[in-house]
Amino acid sequence: MKSLTRILGVGAALLALSTAAYAQQQPRPAELKLGMSTFMTGSASVLGAPAKAAADMWIEAFNAAGGIDGVKLKPTWIDEGQGADKFLSEYRRLAQEPGEKLMLSAISSGYCNALAPVAEDLKVVNILWECSSEKVLEERRYHYVFRTGPNGTMEMVAAVLHLLKTKPDFKTLAVVNQDYAWGRDSWEIFKYTLQALKPDVKIVAELFPKFGAPDFSTEVTRLQALRPDVVLSTAWGGDLDTFLRQASQRGLLKNSQFVLPLADSSLERLGDAVPPGVIVGFVGDGYFADPEFAQDPETSAFVRKFKQKTGAYPNFAVYHMIQALKASTGAYKKAIAANGGKWPTAEQVAAALRTSEYRGLSRPIRMREDGQALQGQLYGITRKDSSQSFPVVGDLVFYPAEHLTPPVGQKSVDWVKTLKPDLLQNSQAKRVGH
Predict the structure, then answer these.
(1) What is the maximum alpha-carbon separation in the chain?
(2) 357 and 389 in one domain?
(3) For a disulfide at 132, which of 152, 181, 342, 413, Cβ 3.0-4.6 Å?
């Protein structure tokens, strides 16, 4: 009986070894399916649709150049504008389809909180290509889920630093943010950072209109009565467009210092509605008019081709989409090389991503061991430019990511409360083009 048990044990061990060997040598697929999502309908599509156009353009060129070691990319798109239930149903369906697959989802922070556990349970590599809520990767550690762009902590800490450098003597501040995960989370980080660095500021209003609201007259009227020194809004897409148009019509943008960390995606559409002097961020450091990349062959060629195809300049969502595609395809190539030229498993791709360094269309980016990318932040001030029909952003300052984010394992909301005013001098901010 002991001999039989011993034989069975040896057999099980050999079976495990052969299974592992097969996993390391799985056949090269005919194609790599990409499950991709963005807003293609609704007010948020003004941000989501350009990202889709950029992805389709980049994938076509990438496939024409040979793909990943001969394997072409095949994207299938999910419209995030159809609502959470339908979105998650479509996500599950795509993630469980037969064949080699990679998921690049999503643009909405509200959706990312829901899909990350699903991707982890299904053991499918998922790139959070846009959603910025820092809580997604801080409240649970994932093996298969990564964010290839910055999170809200980097964006909001840099926003506070730039506000304090630009207008250090303000006394009052109001916020108008969308009422969902991103609007609430970004305000939480901004508020606690501001209170740590300039505790004497009085917050006079916290306004959270519904996501997709068609009218902001209540918020505008309230701001007119309060006349805060500073107005913050981390709104984006059609919501930000509507708010700024209505605020501009009543002179608010000239009466208060506006801080708009996501306004890069709205300036071209809004034109003269945004006056000079508004603080604008880029949710990273991708800006078509960044003088440091004016002569960069890859970036300048992409900006030119994108403008010809869409009639508009690339916004931050476009930059984030491209860096997600470059990071993930680069991880496959890195994993193939580490696997002796054989097609990698999902686990090997995840391991390659976790130690990856890559470049989208701007400055280099490094992935941390918790799956969060470290990407520096670009901020500046709107000004008129005779060559454009909309405001451009000048006086650009770059803030390195390493000074904007907590150590791995520490939650952002706790970390920002410990910041000291000397961060203003120690952030290693650098003027762009100087």
Answers:
(1) 90
(2) no
(3) 152
- 35-47 pLDDT per residue, tens: 999 999 999 999 9
DSSP string, 28-44: PPSEEEEEEEE--SSTT
Q: Are residues 363 and 384 in the same domain?
A: no
Q: Do residues 202 and 246 both lie within one domain?
A: yes
Q: List, in sequence order, every residue forming a beta bridge with 172; answer none if it has no partner.
A: 202
* Separation CA 27–CA 24 (nearest Å): 9
Spell out where 41-165 has E strands.
72-79, 101-104, 126-128, 145-147
pLDDT in tens, 217-248: 999 999 999 999 999 999 999 999 999 999 99
- 231 CB neighbour count, 10 Å cutoff: 27
- Total domain count, the chain: 2
Cα separation, 412 vs 32, in Å, equals 35
Q: In terms of residue numbers, what domain contains 159?
A: 153-282+376-431
Residue whose entry in the numeric block shows the structure tokens 């550690």: 141
- Rounded distance between C-alpha atoms, residue 45 and residue 39, angstroms: 5
DSSP assignment of 153-210? HHHHHHHHHHHHHH-TT--EEEEE--SSHHHHHHHHHHHHHHHHH-TT-EEEEEE-PP
Q: What is the Cα Rg of the chain in Å?
A: 23
For residue 160, what are the contacts with CB-CB under 8 A and spacing of at least 6?
Answer: 190, 193, 194, 197
